Amino acid sequence: MERIGFLSFGHWGPGQGSRTRTAADALLQGIDLAVAAEELGVDGAYFRVHHFARQQASPFPLLSAIAARTSRLEIGTGVIDMRYENPLYMAEEAAAADLISGGRLQLGISRGSPEPARDGASAFGYRPQPGETDADMARRHTAVFRHAITGAGVAQADPRYAGGATGLLPVQPQSPGLADRIWWGAGSRKTAVWAAELGMNLMSSTLLTEDTGVPFHELQSEQIQLYKEAWAAAGHARTPRVSVSRSVLPIVDEEDNYYFAGSALRDGRDQVGVIDGLTARFGKSYVGAPDQLAEQLAADTAVQAADTLLLTVPNQLGVEYNAKLLGNIVEHVAPALGWSRR
Fold first, then answer.
1. Are β-strands 182-185 and 207-208 bridged in parallel, bridged antiparallel, or unpaired?
2. Which residues, listed in sequence order, are joined to residue 280 by a DSSP beta bridge?
C-alpha cells in the first residue's frame, strides 16, 4: 500500500447531529479536512460528485481551493459522472486545477451511479444519440475529454482572429502529464478490462455490479488481476495505479463507540442487492479496535492488490472528528498494510 487518501461524499443537511448543515459548510469543511489530512501525512483528498442531491456537485472550485492551501496532497474525484459533462469545458477546468496544484490532480471519472433525478443528464442538455445508451454517451464524452487534454486540436481556427493560424486549435490551458492521471471508476470486471485497454488507471469502489457468490474482496481482487493482465497485454509504457475504497472506522474512545459500535454488527459483512436492474455485491465496513482492523485489512486481497486505499469518511461529523479518525488510521492501522508516511 503506497498511498492512503480520504474519500468524502460531501453530504450536507440539517439532520440531527449534523455538523455540516449547509452547502457552504460542506465546501469549507472539505478544504479544512484536506489541510488537516496533509498535516497527518495522508496522501490524498478525494470527493464524490453527485448531482441533484445535497452532496458535492462541482468539484473543480473545491479542488482548486484545496490545491492553493496544500503543497503535497493529491486532489481528486471519485467519481465524476461523465453523462453530465461538457467534455471540452471540463478539459479546461481540469487543466486549470491541475496547474494550480502543480500536477497533483488525480481525476476519477465514470458512467455514474443511480441518482435522484430521472434522466438527469438531459436537464443539463445531454442525451444519448440514436442507438446509444447512457453508458455509451458517458464513454463518448470521455473520449472527447481525453483527446482534448492531450493538446490535440478540436476546433477549426479562424485566421481573422487567430493571428493568421489555420488548422485545429486545442483548448487552453493545457497541463502536461494530466492525461496519465485519469482513473476510470469500474463497476465490473468487464469495464476494468476496457479501462486498461484504453490506458486509464483503475478506481474500484465498495460495490461491484455483479455477483459470483465469492466474498467481495475476492471478486474485486479478480477484477484488479484482470485489469493488470489487460494493461500488460495492451503494451502501455507506464505502470498503472489501482485504488480501492473502504469504510474503516477505528473505535478508540467513547465517542467512536457511540457513533459506530452498532455498525460493527450491522455492516460487518458483505451485502447483495440490485442496482439499475443488476445484481450487485457491496463490500463490508471495517469497524472495531485498530489492531483488529489492521489484521482484517491485511487479509483483504483487494486491498493488498491495490497501491492506493481511499477511506470513506463520515463527513457530516465535522473536521475535528474526521481528522481524529484519519489520525488513528495513519498511526494504528496503515503501517500494518505496508504504508509509511512520505
1. unpaired
2. 273
Q: 168-169 and 155-156 as β-strands: parallel, antiparallel, unpaired?
A: antiparallel
Overall residue count recorded for the chain in this entry: 342
pTM: 0.95
If DSSP states are collapsed to H, E and C, what string results for 140-197?
HHHHHHHHHCCCCCCEECCCCCCCCCCCEECCCCCCCCHHHHEEEECCCHHHHHHHHH
Confirm if 82 and 135 have CB atoms less than 8 A apart. Answer: no
- The grid cell for 51 is 448531482
**Cis peptide preceding 79, ω within 30 of 0:** yes
Helix axes 87-101, 59-69, angle to 10 degrees: 10
Ordered per-residue pLDDT tens for the chain, 342 residues: 899 999 999 999 999 889 999 999 999 999 999 999 999 999 999 999 999 999 999 999 999 999 999 999 999 999 999 999 999 999 999 999 999 999 999 999 999 887 899 999 999 999 999 999 999 999 999 999 999 999 999 999 999 999 998 999 999 999 999 999 999 999 899 999 999 999 999 999 887 888 888 988 999 999 999 999 999 999 999 999 999 999 999 999 999 999 998 776 566 676 666 666 666 667 788 999 999 999 999 999 999 999 999 999 999 999 999 999 999 999 999 999 999 998
The residue assigned the cell 463490508 is 284
